Amino acid sequence: MAVTIAKSVADEIIAAAQRVAPLEACGLLAGVGEQLTRAYVLTNADAAAEHYRMLPEEQFAAITDMRRAGLRMLAIWHSHPASPARMSEEDLRLAFTPDVLYVIVSLAEGAAPVVRAFAVNDGVSQNVALRIVEEPN
């Protein structure tokens, strides 16, 4: 499995993560097929450095907007301000949503943020190839 993410979308979630660091940022990613074309930056209600919790009303508004635009929720994203772009034990424990990817933005490398995607099945994560493209195919 492989997915693409529009460069503008990757840049948007990286910027959102950098704005709130050292706290975690979070949100949703939408698109069509295997193409992530729209980011939704949501509030981390916990305002924490090592976990996040999205506000239900913001999630609902994002899903409503996706449907209106003919898009589908393809991923849940969040940042790791000081750790690598990998699924932590807590990330795996809280990966409840079926049939979506989990995208992590790591700021641990400072000037070189890392964006990676994972599929989670039965509590086990699998790396998914994520290709940043100027314009989705």
Structure description:
The protein is α/β, with parallel strands linked by helices. The chain has a single domain (2-116), classed as Cytidine Deaminase, domain 2 (3-Layer(aba) Sandwich). It is 24% helix and 39% strand. It is built from three helices and seven strands. The protein has helices spanning 7-20, 56-69, 89-93, and strands at residues 2-6, 26-32, 35-42, 72-80, 101-106, 114-121, 124-133. Strands 1-3-2-4-5-6-7 form a seven-stranded mixed beta barrel. The radius of gyration is 14 Å and the shape is globular. The mean pLDDT is 94.
Q: Could you give a quick summary of the protein structure above?
A:
With 137 residues, this protein is of the alpha/beta class. 24% of the residues lie in helices and 39% in strands.
List unreliable stretches of 5+ residues: none
Rg, nearest Å:
14 Å
CATH topology heading = Cytidine Deaminase, domain 2
**Secondary-structure element order, as H and E?**
EHEEHEHEEE
**Beta-strand fraction estimate:** 35-45%
Specify the CATH architecture.
3-Layer(aba) Sandwich
Helix-residue proportion? 10-25%
In spatial order, strands of the major sheet run 1-3-2-4-5-6-7
Name of the CATH first level: Alpha Beta
Distance between the termini: 16 Å
Overall geometry:
globular
Task: Determine the mean pLDDT.
Answer: 94
Q: Spell out the CATH superfamily.
A: Cytidine Deaminase, domain 2
Major β-sheet, in short? 7 strands, mixed, barrel
What is the count of helical runs? 3
Number of strands: 7
Based on the structure, what is the oligomeric state of the protein chains?
A: single chain
- The number of domains: 1
Structural class: alpha/beta
